[in-house]
UniProtKB/TrEMBL annotation:
This is Aminopeptidase N. Residues 558-877 form the Peptidase M1 alanyl aminopeptidase C-terminal domain. NCBIfam families: pepN_proteo (TIGR02414). PANTHER family: PUROMYCIN-SENSITIVE AMINOPEPTIDASE. The keyword Zinc applies. Keywords: Aminopeptidase, Hydrolase, Metal-binding, Metalloprotease, Protease, Zinc. It is an enzyme of class 3 (hydrolase). One of its GO terms (biological process) is proteolysis. GO terms for molecular function: alanyl aminopeptidase activity; metallopeptidase activity; zinc ion binding. It comes from Elongatibacter sediminis.
Length: 880
């Protein structure tokens, strides 16, 4: 933070309940595209024991027009207004307050509160956006009943939506009309929403298990009506699945989704009026990739599942964010696993956690899934709160089993439906429902950092005994120096060298039972002894990635080959291949650094040969297995990231595999590229995935470039188009410029497709890409006001292009910092996300370190600087 400015820190331990009950809230919006007038009437009752105190309401960027208490306009002195609050000094124990404010949605560039997107108006209130709409206690534990009247010009705003049911509507003369909405469920302000504009919708219906008829609508701008069908299907599947798997039904007669191009995040679960980034709604085979389809299903599910885990039971305060987010991510992961391939989904989630959450937890923003302090809550919608939070819920599920977990969920809803609660309440429900003690498990909520689990094994042939020693240790993090042992569920199996599963019997057990076990490590060090082990086994460790830890075990290369080919656990099979590739790349990186020649790796080649001739494994799983570990993941394994060495070694590995297995890659590619028309079945998705992984290897060779060119011309779907275009662009292959131009011409008017065009270019490896970034910032389709565009051009460059962002000139750093500074005053939330690209700065060589530090300091010294960016760069520079 700048001198003289002490950052305001909010602490979990300072929680105090709000002293007023707000029994009702009536809101009236007189909507105009330039100025909207908001009138709020609330009935309050004092909850505290002592003397009645003041009424303290949050409010920001509001122009106060009038305040009335119990029907009487208040005079100056009877209330105080400042930049973020309104205080009513001497209210009665029971009273009624009426405020009127004016707001300017058109000027709201932060996309928080009421703002404009194209021709329509919409809101985003989580976490603390409601205070930019009206004066109110903007905290999740203050819940009330909402009655909302929207009044606007009928031509400009024919559709007027809010939460709950539309109960009345009418004409108000002068070409204006009004609609009144009533939400029968009490809710916190962050779940409020309104939408007004000329939107069109698609409609479907769902009948709940108990016979409630629900109208489902997706509202979009007219040109997008033909891209809503998949999202609607996903919504219906979500509703069905939550009934079947969790026994949870929808609770209103209407469920609305609105898609907008201007959104800071993915989507928002406002009660019965979800608002989505259009990226997670709109899809047609020629505009969206298979991955986009999967994300749409996942995010539609996520927001729908929040209706129970988030809305019906919400958070007491924002430190408890993972209560709803970790749990809801776990639920959406399970949904996708049940709808698609469980194995593939697990691999994707593990990769995501390890490449994005692990580094976050080892850097300056490290925090427990339930943080203890923050400056700006928007900075805590993190990989840690979401993905590690989901991993913690998953461990709970693993320990209790599906039945025990569901028992816990039922008790959780029985106890807390309609309330704002804490993570401790959730754990207590799980523990009580199952009659177990989860105290030690609870440490996952308060301790940050990624635990390391070191494994040592010993086989005693004469005794037929196999000893497994587990040792855990969590390195100190930026926010916590002392670490305690955690409760770690550790999945394990044992294979014979031929790959057969060995029945498992732990010392002291009557007989062998099963071939997969869950060991529970809850001390620093523990020893487990398996008996009746007929031969030196190959250990299959951390099955299903049973805990979010870093595993250290010195696998023999031949053991990895056995695991990759034969293990029954999909994660372990994938991990074995990843480890083989990782070792090959790391060895060559060393060679590159020492000026030695890089060498092909015979073991890795053998492994790939096996993968390319595997005709039984799901092609989608094979595709995941053949994707080489990313430069980001590999870099995170090093004490000091070797940007150029890793890039060179990974490229070398890819190219040598392609060369020595060219025929095998071509055979698989040509087999899968069967010329059949696009089809959205899981089997076709899987085939495209493997085909395009093969293309990624082949594109290093002339035969592959030829296939990429052909695929680009012939493709009838966006998955194949983007894969081909990426292959051409990233190799700067002949014809790549023409292909880019052709693509641009065809899709210039589709913002989501243009985002892909941007990402493809800014992720092209190499120091010169920064110049392309600068050009694209001036492209007519780019806009600094649109978060998707900023993420596609600047975010993707900074996070997904190591040799571009970390170019040794420092030009990448300067470019990204320029954008952070330009964006800060417009949209601090998005600026802070981009600024976090510098979080890893201490992990690089001295020259890059000082270049990054200079940019961080440049950002920090800007004045004014938002609290959002201030917190990120402040933490990054802290104790530098
Ligand atoms: N609750 C949303 C979700 O995870 C997250 C979200 C949407 C959000 N928009 C936001 C968080 C804006 C902070 C700010 O589903
Ligand atoms: Zn969520």
């Amino acid at each position: 933070m700048k001198e003289g400015l002490t950052p305001k820190i909010v602490r979990r331990e300072d929680y105090t309940p709000y002293p007023w009950q707000i029994t009702d809230l009536r809101l009236r919006f007189e909507i105009d595209h330039r100025i909207t007038t908001v009138t709020a009437e609330m009935d309050l009752a004092w909850l505290g024991d002592g003397e009645v105190g003041a009424i303290r309401l949050d409010g920001q960027c509001l122009e106060l027009v009038g305040v009335e208490l119990d029907g009487r306009p208040l005079r100056a002195g009877e209330y105080t207004v400042d930049a973020d609050s309104l205080v009513i000094h001497e209210p009665a124990r029971e009273c009624s307050l009426r405020t009127q404010v004016r707001i300017r949605p058109q000027e709201n560039t932060a996309l928080e509160g009421l703002y404009a997107s194209g021709e329509f108006l919409l809101t985003q209130c989580e976490a603390e956006g409601f205070r930019k709409i009206t004066y109110f206690p903007d905290r999740p534990d203050v819940m009330t009943n909402y009655e909302v009247t929207l009044e606007a010009d009928r031509d400009r705003y024919p559709v007027l939506l809010s939460n709950g049911n539309a109960v009345e509507s009418g004409d108000s003369g002068d070409g204006r009309h009004w609609v009144r909405w009533c939400d029968p469920f009490r809710k916190p302000a962050y779940l409020f929403a309104l939408v007004a504009g000329r939107l069109e919708h698609v409609e479907d219906r769902f009948t709940t298990r108990s016979g409630r008829e629900v109208t489902l609508r997706i509202y979009v701008e007219p040109q997008n009506l033909d891209k809503c069908a998949y999202a609607m299907g996903a919504l219906i599947r979500s509703m069905q699945w939550d009934e079947e798997r969790f026994g949870l039904e929808y609770d209103l007669d209407i469920y609305n989704i609105v898609a907008t191009d201007d959104f800071n995040m993915g989507a928002m679960e406002n009660k019965s009026l979800n608002i989505f980034n259009s990226k997670y709604v709109l899809a047609r085979p020629d505009t969206a990739t298979d991955m986009d389809y999967q994300s749409i299903e996942g995010v539609i599910g996520h927001e729908y599942f929040h209706n129970w885990t988030g809305n019906r039971v919400t958070c007491r305060d924002w430190f408890q964010l993972t209560l709803k987010e970790g749990l809801t991510v776990f639920r959406d992961q399970e949904f996708t696993s049940d709808m698609q391939s469980r194995a593939v989904k697990r691999i994707q989630d593990v990769r995501d956690l390890r490449t994005r959450q692990f580094p976050e937890d080892a850097g300056p923003m490290s925090h427990p899934i339930r943080p203890d302090r923050y400056q700006e809550i928007n900075n805590f919608y993190t990989m840690t709160v979401y993905q590690k939070g989901a991993a913690v819920i998953r461990m709970c599920h693993t320990l209790l089993g599906e039945e025990g977990f569901q028992k816990g969920m039922r008790l959780y809803f029985e106890r807390h439906d309609g309330a704002a609660v804490t993570c401790d309440d959730f754990i207590a429900a799980m523990a009580d429902a199952n009659g177990v003690d989860l105290d030690r498990f609870g440490r996952w909520y308060s301790q940050s950092g990624t635990p390391e689990v070191r494994v040592r094994t010993e086989y005693r042939a004469d005794e037929g005994r196999y000893i497994v020693e587990l040792e855990q240790q969590t390195p100190p993090t930026h926010d916590q120096s002392e670490k305690q042992p955690l409760l770690i569920p550790f999945g394990i199996g044992l294979l014979t060298p031929e790959g057969a599963e060995i029945p498992l019997r732990l010392d002291g057990e009557e007989a062998a039972a099963g071939t997969s076990r869950l060991l529970v490590l809850d001390e620093r060090e523990q020893r487990f002894e398996f008996v009746d082990v007929p031969c030196r086994p190959v250990p299959s460790l951390l099955r299903d990635f049973s805990a979010p830890v870093k595993l250290t075990y010195d696998y023999a290369p031949e053991d990895l080959e056995v695991l990759m080919r034969h293990d029954t656990d999909a994660f372990v099979r994938w991990e074995a291949a990843q480890l083989l590739a990782q070792r090959a790349i790391m060895n060559n990186r060393q060679a590159f650094r020492e000026g030695r020649e890089m060498q092909p790796d015979a073991g890795l080649e053998r492994a790939f040969q096996a993968l390319l001739s595997d005709r039984t494994t799901d092609p989608a799983q094979l595709a995941e297995t053949m994707r080489l570990p990313g430069e980001d993941y590999l870099g995170d394994l090093m004490a000091e990231v070797d940007v150029d060495g890793l890039h060179a070694a990974r490229n070398f590995t890819r190219t040598t595999l392609a060369r020595s297995l060219e025929n095998e890659f071509l055979r698989v590619y040509d087999l899968l590229d069967d010329g059949a028309a696009y089809n959205d079945s899981g089997a076709s998705v899987a085939r495209r995935s493997l085909k395009n992984v093969c293309l990624g290897y082949l594109a290093d060779l002339p035969s592959g470039v030829e296939r990429a060119q052909r695929q680009f011309r012939a493709s009838d779907n966006m998955t194949d188009t983007v894969a081909a275009l990426r292959a051409l662009v990233h190799r700067k292959a002949p014809g790549h410029r023409e292909a880019l131009e052709q693509f641009e011409k065809r899709w210039a008017s589709d913002p989501l497709v243009m985002d892909k065009w941007f990402v493809l270019q800014v992720t092209c490896p190499g120091a010169d890409t920064v110049e392309r970034v600068a050009e694209l910032l001036d492209h007519p389709a780019f806009s600094l006001s649109n978060p998707n565009k900023v993420r596609s051009v600047v975010g993707a460059f900074a996070m997904l292009n190591p040799t571009g962002f970390h170019a040794d000139s420092g030009a990448g750093y300067a470019q990204v910092a320029d954008v952070v500074l330009q964006l800060d005053s417009r949209n601090p939330q998005v600026a802070a996300r981009i600024a976090s690209a510098f979080n890893g700065w201490k992990r690089y060589d001295e020259s890059r370190r000082s270049l990054m530090r200079a940019q961080l300091e440049r950002i920090r010294s800007a004045s004014p600087l938002s609290a959002d960016v201030g917190e990120i760069v402040g933490n990054a520079l802290d104790d530098a």
